[in-house]
Amino acid sequence: xxxxxxTASEQDRVLIFDTTLRDGEQSPGATMTHDEKLxxxxxxxxxxxxxxxxxxxxxxxxxxxAVSAIARQSKNATICGLARANYKDxxxxxxxxxxxxxxxxxxxxxxSPLHRAIPNLDMDQMAERIHDTVSHARNxxxxxxxxxxxxxxxxxxxxxxxxxxxxxAGATTINIPDTxxxxxxxxxxxLIRMLVERVPGADTIVFATHxxxxxxxxxxxxxxxxxxxxxxxxxxxxxxxxxxxxxxLEEVVMALxxxxxxxxxxxxxxxxxxxxxxxxxxxxxxFPVQFNKAIVGKNAFAHESGIHQDGMLKNAQTFEIMRPAxxxxxxxxxxxxxxxxxxxxxxxxxxxxYDLADNQLNDxxxxxxxxxxxxxxxxDDDIVALIQDQVTSAEHDTLQLxxxxxxxxxxxxxxxxxxxxxEGVDHAIDATGDGPVDAAFNAVKMIYPHHAKLHLYQVxxxxxxxxxxxxxxxxxxxxxxxxxxxxxxxxxxxxxxKAYVNALNRLIHRRQKSAPGADTKDVHYSSHA
Length: 529
Ligand code: KIV
Ligand code: ZN
What we know:
Blueprint: H1 8-12, E1 15-18, H2 20-24, H3 34-47, E2 51-55, H4 61-73, E3 78-84, H5 87-97, E4 103-110, H6 113-116, H7 123-140, E5 144-149, H8 156-169, E6 173-178, H9 185-198, E7 206-211, H10 218-227, E8 232-235, H11 249-258, H12 274-285, H13 306-314, H14 342-351, H15 358-374, H16 380-392, E9 399-407, E10 414-422, E11 425-433, H17 436-447, E12 453-461, E13 470-478, E14 481-489, H18 492-513
Parallel strand pairs: 1-2, 1-8, 2-3, 3-4, 4-5, 5-6, 6-7, 7-8
Antiparallel strand pairs: 9-10, 10-11, 12-13, 13-14
Helix pairs in contact: 3-4, 3-12, 4-5, 5-7, 7-8, 8-9, 9-10, 12-16, 17-18
The structure holds 3-methyl-2-oxobutanoic acid and zinc ion.
């Protein structure tokens, strides 16, 4: 887009729109609590994200409360809420975001033939709906984003027509979603270029790109759209999102930074905050980052082969296109042990991106000492696992594991002796099972009967060695609602039970929070005026 009224520097600026708390939270099992959402929003704001899509206010009371609280706490970022193409959604959205210093309403409707068929609107009826709803939003808020959902499968002439209507009705940002992750880089660029060239008024608004990753091309598609004139990238931390996820924030930010020679655009994001927020989102969403994930994966800066290690020692640039410090990874690998004191732990935590208050530090210190007693060397990853474990277990949780002892070995059945506190009251029980984990999970079910089904049970060793901590992820499903739990411990069975209990607590929390029939997962992308 060549807008001659803008300086070169303004034209190169790409806005980062983070939708971890809306699109990201829509991935099955990634539900976050109110406090977790607030904490993530604060980190996004601090790292320089331009727009935070904080949720879908009409979806549930919980979503509404979270968006309102984020709107009130935001210091710099624009706070946006999502609304379908009807007045009720838009009014509710405005109620939630209006407290922000800079509020935005984001309203959308599916414009492709498949999506037009759902509310059973013909092209003219849909065009009228778009005009009415965008005008309504604009009467409430002077910052309105409009999205033709499934834009990449919408007829070009119709897409140009409805984009023009939305601009005339007052939209200030037009987002072009590749809802099903179907497009490819050249096509993504051509689509934006066509809109810029053909739609009257295109030079008065910002085009955004919103790409899903079903074919693994989300980041490439988003960057191609920027080269064609889009100036807002919609993305999520760790690429969290529906199905295969979205464009990953860390990927676009680092790609624009590292390849500024061929993509001369800038973002306002402080890349050194990336690692910290990535870890946080992995913990609270229960979606661990795959080891080989670009930028934030455990192996992204690890060099295993002799040739690579030799090259790295001579000159880091031989095999690294960015420095670990650029994304907030500490260079030093100061190994901690049982003689390390509170000050050393505080310094180490700071290096790792965790600035803890004194009482939190005390807690972590006690747990660090207990770990150091059991484990010779405590590595950075051990400390991160410790912190993450602390984040996932809250004092006010309904269920808390108090004691566990298992008997395992070649002669089954294996046994578990457990004390579990339910709403502050301790219950003890003995259970058997097919292996110690099964026995322990059976004990939880006997003390706290439920019909949640186990969908995923995954164990990872945090570091090497038989004394390594294990991090365990558990995903449970109950009546169509999914919750994921995580925990870490040097004892794999203890970590497993803590993760199971953590997932159950999240399900209980969701049961208590969501208004009947009004959960985000139940809101389909249909429209009712
Ligand atoms: O993928 C999509 O189309 C969306 C819209 C709601 C913008 O998330
Ligand atoms: Zn999406």
